Amino acid sequence: MTELASMRNIGKEIEKKLKTVGICSAEELIQTGSKEAFLRMKLRFPNVCLVHLYTLQGAVDNIDYNQLTDEVRQDLKNFSDGLK
């Protein structure tokens, strides 16, 4: 299993939150997907925000989160807004 912190955009704080919600490896994050991982984090840590979702998607896609396409960003924003 690959450590979460070895993924792009994943620092110690996000790694800790992911592990708290049952996602303990890079493979598990990729399999779970950014939206489900974000949803789990949001339920446990209500203060997580859209940037966290971008960060997770960037990690899954192996790109810096600020390199996500406008279409992907809009899709993620719509998902996040739908949770409110």
Sheet/helix structural class: mainly alpha
User: What string, H for helix and E for strand, traces the elements in order?
Assistant: HHHHH
Number of helices: 5
Q: What is the terminal separation in angstroms?
A: 34 Å
Instruction: Please give the oligomerization state of what you see.
Output: single chain
Portion in strands:
under 5%
Largest sheet composition: none
The total of beta strands comes to 0
Low-confidence stretches: none
Shape: globular
Global mean pLDDT: 97
Estimated radius of gyration: 12 Å
Helical proportion?
55-70%
Write up this protein.
With 84 residues, the protein is an all-alpha fold. The chain has 5 helices and no strands. It has helices spanning 12-20, 26-32, 34-44, 50-61, 70-82. The termini are far apart. The mean pLDDT is 97.
Quick overview:
The protein is mainly α and 84 residues long. The chain has helices spanning 12-20, 26-32, 34-44, 50-61, 70-82. The mean pLDDT is 97.
